[in-house]
Amino acid sequence: MSTPILEVRELVKEYPGTLAVAGVSFSVPEGVCFGLLGPNGAGKTTTIEIMEGILPPTAGEVCYRGEPLGNRFRQEAGILFQKTALQDFLTVRQCIALFRGLYTTGLEVDEVMRLCALQKLAGRDARKLSGGQQQRLLLAIALVNDPAVLFLDEPTTGLDPQARRNFWELVQSIKARRKTIILTTHYMEEAELLCDEIVIMDRGRLIAQGPPRRLLHEHFAEVLLELPRQEFPPAARALPLSIIDASDRVEISTHDLEATLRTLLEAKVPLTNLRIRPANLEDLFLELTGTELRP
Amino acid sequence: MIRRLLSVLHARNLEFVRDRGTLVFTLLLPVTLVIGMGFVFGGPQRPLFKVGVLAGQEDRQAHPFLRERYVAFITLADDGAALRKVTHQQVDLLLDLRAPERYWVNTDSPKGYIVEKLLLAAEPAAVREPVTGAAVRYVDWLFPGILGMNMMFSCLFGVGYVVLRYRKSGFLKRLHATPLTAFEFLSAQVLSRLGLILLVTAILYAGIGAVIGFHNAGNLLLLALVGVVGALSMIALGLTIAARFSSEELVGGLLNVLTWPMMLLSGIWFSLEGSPPWVQWVAHVFPLTHVLDAARAVMLDGAGLPQIAPNLLYLAATALAFLAFGAWSFRWRIE
User: Fold this and answer.
1) CA distance A208 to chain B (A)
2) CA–CA distance, A26 with A8 (Å, rounded to integer)
3) Which of A37, A209, B148, B167 sits a CA distance of 20 to 30 A from B229?
4) Domain residue limits at A228
5) Which of B22, B169, B174 to mutate against chain A (most A CBs within 10 Å)?
6) Distant-in-sequence, close-in-space partners of B220: CB < 8 Å, separation ≥ 6
7) Which pLDDT tens digit goes with each residue over B33-71?
8) What is the DSSP letter of A91?
């Protein structure tokens, strides 16, 4: 594993009456796509904003290449916020040029537009872009300084499936350029596809950290069996199985599919609507953070 | 730093010019006001005599002339300025009560002729010092006030609401994630607004000046300097108000709290001469009062740099103080 480009040490953020981040530590290796996952209110946006240097922590620190965040970090970081409004009455090219003018080094405006497939939109009023085009523009702005580390805070929220897949392709092309990417997302499919390493936060704390495959292996057996909840008899809950309650279904995690099926048949559990699939990141997320709706 | 500043400056200028509604409003308001004021105040003035009395004189109330009714007596500190007021018929007569008692009267002024009769009835031995000079019309006197008022609104509301909008929309937060500093951002806003205000004021000066037949008695460059320093001070004041807050209502309220006293007390519509000293003291806290004092001194009296230097220094000092405070208290994001 390469040297960490970012280190988060004992980070605490307190608001009046709320402990948003409660002593979080982790490090981000250079050149990876690092996912920061968690349910709403887990503290991930607060954590990422402290990492971006725009929110001061109550305690702890974030180091970039071994030094506290400073001018070098601002020159070398690119950020795509969850929500960003741009200046009115500017075209796509002018928006990018505005931000390019704020950095001493970086990519040419035309090159950034090419990277984000914005050439055909160069003269369009930025307010008149679709959601997907808007996100591509914000990504272009985040790339104008040719950043060493790129923060993407829920970049595909609100996009349609085509725009989301298009955005993923862009992120993969950035990954191919050996850029470090810090990604927060609510889409586990996105995290699974893009992230080399993840941390999962809940209630301001880290509850899991590592490569997705390793975490899945640690928390789940090889496969998951899914049954509709109404077809799963209450008596079957006493069976010696690893049973997980999801909203409308019951999931059984196992590494011995044959033995589990035999146990279910012996207990006369109907298997007509049985589904068998491998565990994924969403299962891990729900396993660790629960399924109840947060206030 | 210059590159970053120019980048923000250019983008802000584009935004302003393309916002046609605001641009038209900025140009139309003062013209409408001048026309309106011309209708309202264009008729004959009230039959009130105004007599200047040179300051530093003891026992003024003992003088019989100073007890005359329907005459406003105004204490004037500066002899030269007082004499100019007689020349421009801004006072009908100037009185020096020190022995030998003297008075200056404009022989071209009808009101001067009448008020002289009143004086001589009370003090026949007073020594006459005749002067001549055409009257300053009310519209000439009002003209700098209109320019100053337009400048004030544009400076305070234009900049204040723009920064507030940027903060609320998250645009400032995005800029904060770049190497741009608060001082650079604020300076770009100040310079952008300053350029636009100077351009608009120059157009209004030339256009309205030609329509009303105004003749500037002073140096045009000095007048431009007054405009630059005055606009800087008021833009910086607007930024100070908008530096921190995120509520439109609060910022709007604060800006109104600032603009209304300036509208009433800075001498846009009427002169504060003769008002209580505390009112004049309060009025001179406002930058607009110094802008108008200096502009009128240049435009109407042909004053030079030494005469308006105190106003310019006050405006420059407040501009720096407001800008420094604004940068210090600036918030990039909603707390």
Assistant:
1) 29
2) 5
3) B167
4) 221-278
5) B174
6) none
7) 666 555 545 555 554 788 888 866 545 666 778 878 888
8) B
In this structure, CATH architecture of domain B49-131:
3-Layer(aba) Sandwich (3.40)
Residues A172 and A104 in one domain: yes
In this complex, the residue of A52, A84, A87 whose CB is nearest that of residue B15 is A87
| Nearest CB to B7 within list A85, A101, A141 | A101
Q: How far apart are CA A54 and CA A153, in angstroms?
A: 13
Query: Nearest residue of B to residue A52 by CA position?
Result: B177
How far, rounded to the nearest angstrom, does the alpha carbon of residue A221 sit from its chain's CA centroid?
24
Interface TM-score (ipTM) > 0.95: no
Which residues 43-102 on chain A approach chain B with CB closer than 8 angstroms? 52-54, 71, 74-75, 77, 79, 81, 83-90, 94, 97-102
At A19-40, the pLDDT tens digits run 999 999 999 999 899 999 888 8
Question: What are the contacts of B15-20 at 24+ separation with CB within 8 A?
Answer: B15/A87, B15/A88, B15/A89, B15/A90, B16/B192, B16/B196, B18/A88, B18/A89, B19/A88, B19/A89
A52: in domain? no
Residues with Cβ < 8 Å from B38, sequence gap 6 or more? B139
